[in-house]
Amino acid sequence: MESAILFDTLAYAKKMKEAGFTDKQAETQAEALAEIIGTNLATKQDLKELEARLTASIIKWVAGMLVAQAAVIAALVKLL
């Protein structure tokens, strides 16, 4: 499930025009910002999914280290 970030380009362009931008400048900036927001920002859902993947990876790594540690201890016990 993909979450969307809402960005009102019309309202943004109006604010830019009120601040003194030309129509073309305001519209171009609104379009560029909408593109950046749509492609480069992570949503809360994106962050939750990343956290879940990282947690799973860490659990696998820790489990692997425990197995390796047990093997090293077993080998050391045999040497004694």
Report on the structure:
- The protein is mainly alpha-helical and 80 residues long.
- The protein contains 3 helices and no strands.
- The protein is rod-shaped, with a radius of gyration of 26 Å.
- The model has no long low-confidence stretch (mean pLDDT 89).
Output the keywords.
single chain, 80 residues, mainly alpha, 3 helices, 80% helix, 0% strand, rod-shaped
Class computed from helices, strands and strand pairing: mainly alpha
Shape: rod-shaped
Number of helices, where a helix is a run of at least 4 consecutive DSSP H or I residues: 3
Low-pLDDT segments? none
Quick summary of this structure?
Helix content is 80%, strand content 0%. It has 3 helices and no strands.
What's the structural blueprint in terms of helices and strands?
Layout: H1 9-18, H2 23-40, H3 44-79
